[in-house]
Amino acid sequence: MTRRPLIVGNWKMNMNVAQATALAQDISYEYDRDFEDVDVVLCPPFTDLRSVRVTLGFDKSPIMLGAQNVYWQPSGAFTGEISAEMLKEIGCNYCIIGHSERREHFGETDETVNLKARALIAQGIAPIICCGENLATRDAKQTIGHITSQVTTALLNISAAELKDVVIAYEPIWAIGTGLAALPEQAEDVCASIRETLADIYGATFASKTRILYGGSMKPSNVAQFAPMPNIDGGLIGTAALVAGDFMSLVKAFL
Ligand code: PEP
């Protein structure tokens, strides 16, 4: 099964409107027709979604829009939150959920990731479900069990038919933003185990079609080691997503 590679840029809490517009313009300019065999998603902060969408729309760019978080209720007295309907209306095709920074700073759990996944699916937005272990879990050789449990809980009671466009991103916490990526073999082992988990829940056909990304200090100098790995279908990119040339060299590596 050949899966279409996917590169997702997580801009985190960076870029004001002018900076976001300029970065989207630069990426859109560099993503010429030669790159169309790789799906690209930009996930700016909520406040930049509209300007990035307008910029990409003006260029008639096939680059897609994603958010970095969502709340699972459709509307109401939830001060500060953004619903899946709102993301849909503004043009999001994807949404990152369960990022380790949200788990660490904002109390996100596997259970709330499950609620968020359902809310997104109901709006036709593809969830990018993040999972990953900390160093203590890795040192204790509990990585695979931890990841299996995160993925299984995030997908609880969601059917294969509902999930058609889900993406799983394996992001070891110790590799995020540190400059020190996992070894490609370590990342491949965990991504392969995620595919096995998906096969156990949804069957081999579903698992073989689902895109699994690696994230954690993926950058121009190391991407060539990850791209050939059979179970790594692309990247979730933080730091290198903020520089158009760096980001596009990651896209190119997955061509
Ligand atoms: C991330 O935050 O999802 C990420 C992968 O960041 P970085 O590329 O900076 O490690």
Helicity, in percent?
40-55%
Distance between the terminal alpha carbons, to the nearest Å?
A: 16 Å
Q: Which CATH class?
A: Alpha Beta
The CATH architecture can be given as Alpha-Beta Barrel
Structurally, the number of domains stands at 1
Q: In what order do the strands lie side by side in the largest sheet?
A: 1-2-3-4-5-6-7-8
Please report which band the strand proportion falls in: under 5%, 5-15%, 15-25%, 25-35%, 35-45% or over 45%: 5-15%
Query: Using DSSP, what is the number of strands?
Result: 8
User: For the record, what is the CATH homologous superfamily label?
Assistant: Aldolase class I
Could you report the average pLDDT, rounded to the nearest whole number? 96
What's the gyration radius in Å? Answer: 17 Å
Number of helices: 11
Molecular shape: globular
CATH topology label:
TIM Barrel
Series of H and E elements = EHEHEHEHHEHHEHHEHEH
**Ligand types:** phosphoenolpyruvate
| Unreliably modeled segments | none
Oligomeric category: single chain
Walkthrough of the structure:
The chain is globular and about 45 Å long. With 255 residues, it is α/β, with parallel strands linked by helices. The mean pLDDT is 96. Strand 7 (211-215), helix 10 (223-226) and strand 8 (234-237) form a beta-alpha-beta unit. Helices cover 42% and strands 15% of the residues. The chain has a single domain, classed as TIM Barrel. The two termini are 16 Å apart. It has an 8-stranded parallel β-barrel, surrounded by 5 helices. It binds phosphoenolpyruvate. Phosphoenolpyruvate is lined by residues 10, 171, 176-177, 215-218, 236-240.
